[in-house]
Structure formats: structure tokens, C-alpha cells
């Protein structure tokens, strides 16, 4: 099955064939794409069987494989990879170990058929997930006949970025996945794969919060430590995660950042939730990431505060007592079902819809808002802090 004709009926005269059928296996392992076993068969069924057998054998941690079935002209004395051929179909292993076949024009991804999104096992690392994503980018690019530079020029990025993504060395953005999808005409296949890259960025208990956040009609949040995730810049988020995870790899940090930025899509969707956030003044003055990172973050707060569904207020230091104390909390409301209270500690978070807790924290948030600066005065305050920071010492 390695580069030879797979015809088991050698004793009988070979029937005259109009075509041969070539099969190729491709693998991504340790962030590198490599050619696997290949061969030619006299029938399409035989070639499909060879691909399925090879894919069944190509299993292991961090290994991702797919097969390509092609038709070749009959009569070639020694078929080679460079011989003329017409791709017919892709094959890829499903999570249950079976093989999925789709026409070549569809160019499938390995997917969880329940939702069309690529399946990621709990044991997948960010390196293996990026290798899988990068292998798909490379496969689609090669199918389109483009070099990394040509794809980069059309996708408004650099050739070096394309190569790093294909090698599994860089966390791509959802926006990049969307642009490449459109350019290569692959009907959103990379965007379907992209969520698997961020799935492991959050602990299991926080995914409930993410899902609630996506469904909420309103979000009320009081924060005393850091800018809430929905309003963070990439640089600010990167500084937060680097400090919180000192032993994490660079790829893991970028995965965390990508996941956090992705949550912010709810701010600009067609029907965003009503978001009311009150920040303690200390959040504005704590220079997370340094002067330039914090200045950029303050500028982003000003821009976000201009969104029609965002109501941002600042609780200044001169308000000495308030019902929030120094404990951040969030309230989320929904069109159907009870409201939810979320609180977080250093070791985890907790949600509850206990009526007494909800009532207590709704009252607390209303009192905090009443003691905070108005929306307009809060903008002025943030702008003043930013100017003071920009023109002051590091």
C-alpha cells in the first residue's frame, strides 16, 4: 500500500480500464504536514478501501490525517505524485473511528455531525488543535493552487502569518478564518473549526457563564479589580492572562486572548444585550500591562461607552462606602427564565438564581449606580485619567 499498484487479481488478465484511481494520505503531526502512504488501484472501490484502511491505522495523540481519492489516465507506465490526476473525493476520520466521504468540491473537515463543528476531545492540547487547523488551511490553500504569499495578499495579512498558522505556531483570529473561507470559497469550513481552538481556553465551570452571556437580554456588572472581559483590548487581556498564568506557554496565552476577544462579538451583533457596567476608580488607575497598554485600554473604554446599548459608569475614590464593598459581581437577565447572579473568586466562580441573593444584589447594583458618576461625567473622568497617564511618568 506504499506507492505500488494495489491489484490483487494478478492471475487473471487485466481488463481494459479507462482510468486508474490514485489514493493519498496526508498527516499533520507535531505541527508539521507530511505526505503519508499512497498508491494506485484499478477500481475506485479498491482505492477507497485502501484510504479507509490507512486512515484507520493513522491514529495517535496529536496526529490528524485525511485522504484524497483521484482519477488518473490509464496506461501510465509508472504513476507518480506528479502524474496528471483529477481529485474526486476527500476522506477524513470521524470521532467514532469511521470514515466520512464527501465530494472533492465540498472539502469536508472532521466534524461532530450533531452541530457541524469540529470535535475536540478533552485530551486535545492547544498545539494539536492548532496543528489540525493549520493543516486544513494548508490543504485548502493547496487545493486552490495558491502560495502562502498569494493567500496572504488576498487575506490582507503577511505570508509569514499564513505559514505560522499552517505550522500550528500562531493562534488565528476568527476574522482571519472568515476571510480565508470567503477567499477559497469553502463555505465557512474554517469558521466551523475555529471554535474548537478556544473551547479548552476556559474551565468547564465557566462555559455555563459564556452560554448565559450569549443568551442574556441585559448584563449588569460591578468590577473593582480589572476591566471586565467584554471590554478588554487584546493587549490588556494578554497582560491579565500572563500575570494569572505564569507557567503557561505563549500559545496557551494567545488561546486565552482569542477566546476572550471572541466573546465581545455580542457587543456589535444585530440585537446586543443591554450592558450596564460600573467600574471602581481603581480599575482605571491600575496600570495592567504598563502605561501604553493601559492607555489603549482606557481609549477602548471610551469608544465602547459610545455604543447605544452600553451604559458605563465610574465609582470614584471619594465614595468611601457603598454596598458593593470590594466584591465584583454580575447579574444577567433573560427574556425567559429567572435572572442569574454570578460571582467569582481566585479559585473559581459560582452562579445562582436564588431569589433572595438576586434581590440583594439588584438593590446593591442600583445603589452603586446612584453613587457613581453619571454616564457623561464618567466619560470625562476616563478621558482625564487617560490624559494624565499619557502625559505623566511611566
Q: Which key features would you list for this structure?
A:
single chain; 394 residues; alpha+beta; five-stranded antiparallel beta sheet; disordered N terminus
Helical segment count: 14
- The count of DSSP E runs of length 2 or more, i.e. the number of strands, is 11
Structural class: alpha+beta
* Intertermini distance: 65 Å
User: Which strand order does the major sheet show?
Assistant: 8-7-6-9-10-11
The largest β sheet comes out as:
6 strands, mixed
The percent range for helix content is 40-55%
Topology:
Elements: E1 19-29, E2 32-41, H1 44-57, E3 63-73, E4 86-93, E5 99-103, H2 126-143, H3 148-155, H4 159-166, H5 174-184, H6 189-193, H7 195-199, H8 204-215, E6 218-223, H9 234-244, H10 250-263, E7 274-280, H11 281-285, H12 291-305, E8 310-315, E9 329-333, E10 340-345, E11 348-352, H13 355-371, H14 375-391
Parallel strand pairs: 6-7, 7-8
Antiparallel strand pairs: 1-2, 1-3, 3-4, 4-5, 6-9, 9-10, 10-11
Helix pairs in contact: 3-4, 9-10, 12-14
Task: Write a structural description.
The protein has helices at 44-57, 126-143, 148-155, 159-166, 174-184, 189-193, 195-199, 204-215, 234-244, 250-263, 281-285, 291-305, 355-371, 375-391; strands at 19-29, 32-41, 63-73, 86-93, 99-103, 218-223, 274-280, 310-315, 329-333, 340-345, 348-352. The chain is α+β, with helices and mostly antiparallel strands and 394 residues long. It starts with 18 loop residues before the first strand and ends with a helix. The model is unreliable at 1-17 and 105-123 (pLDDT under 50).
Amino acid at each position: 500500500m506504499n506507492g505500488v499498484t494495489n491489484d490483487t487479481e494478478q492471475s487473471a488478465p487485466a481488463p481494459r480500464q479507462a482510468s486508474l484511481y490514485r489514493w493519498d494520505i496526508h498527516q499533520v503531526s507535531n505541527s508539521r504536514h507530511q505526505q503519508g502512504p499512497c498508491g494506485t488501484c484499478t477500481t475506485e472501490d479498491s482505492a477507497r478501501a485502501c484510504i479507509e484502511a490507512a486512515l484507520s491505522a493513522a491514529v495517535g495523540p496529536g496526529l490528524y490525517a485525511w485522504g484524497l481519492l483521484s482519477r488518473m489516465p490509464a496506461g501510465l507506465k509508472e504513476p507518480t505524485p506528479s502524474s496528471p490526476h483529477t481529485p474526486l473525493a476527500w476522506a477524513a476520520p470521524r470521532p467514532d473511528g469511521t470514515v466520512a466521504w464527501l465530494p472533492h468540491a465540498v472539502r469536508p473537515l472532521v466534524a461532530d455531525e450533531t452541530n457541524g463543528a469540529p470535535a475536540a476531545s478533552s485530551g486535545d492540547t492547544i498545539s494539536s488543535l492548532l496543528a489540525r487547523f493549520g493543516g486544513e488551511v494548508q490543504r485548502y490553500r493547496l487545493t486552490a493552487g495558491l502560495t502562502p504569499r498569494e493567500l496572504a495578499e488576498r487575506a490582507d495579512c503577511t505570508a509569514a502569518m499564513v505559514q505560522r498558522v499552517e505550522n500550528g505556531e500562531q493562534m488565528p483570529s476568527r476574522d482571519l478564518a472568515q476571510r480565508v473561507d470567503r477567499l477559497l470559497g469553502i463555505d465557512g469550513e474554517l469558521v466551523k473549526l475555529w471554535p474548537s481552538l478556544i473551547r479548552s481556553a476556559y474551565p468547564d465551570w465557566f462555559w455555563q457563564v459564556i452560554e448565559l452571556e450569549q443568551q442574556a437580554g441585559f448584563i449588569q456588572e460591578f468590577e473593582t479589580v480589572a476591566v471586565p472581559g467584554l471590554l478588554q483590548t487584546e493587549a490588556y487581556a494578554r497582560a491579565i492572562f500572563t500575570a494569572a498564568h505564569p507557567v503557561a506557554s505563549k500559545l496557551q496565552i494567545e488561546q486565552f486572548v482569542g477566546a476572550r476577544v471572541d466573546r465581545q462579538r455580542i457587543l456589535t451583533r444585530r440585537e446586543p444585550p443591554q450592558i450596564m457596567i460600573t467600574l471602581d476608580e481603581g480599575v482605571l488607575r491600575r496600570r495592567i500591562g504598563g502605561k501604553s497598554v493601559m492607555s489603549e485600554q482606557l481609549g477602548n473604554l471610551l469608544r465602547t461607552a459610545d455604543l447605544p446599548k452600553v451604559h458605563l459608569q465610574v465609582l470614584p475614590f471619594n465614595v468611601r462606602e457603598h454596598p458593593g464593598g470590594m466584591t465584583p459581581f454580575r447579574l444577567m437577565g433573560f427574556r425567559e427564565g429567572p435572572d442569574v447572579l454570578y460571582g467569582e473568586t481566585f479559585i473559581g466562580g459560582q452562579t445562582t438564581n436564588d431569589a433572595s441573593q438576586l434581590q440583594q444584589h439588584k438593590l446593591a447594583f442600583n445603589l452603586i449606580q446612584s453613587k457613581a458618576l453619571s454616564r457623561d461625567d464618567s466619560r470625562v473622568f476616563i478621558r482625564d485619567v487617560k490624559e494624565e497617564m499619557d502625559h505623566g511618568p511611566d
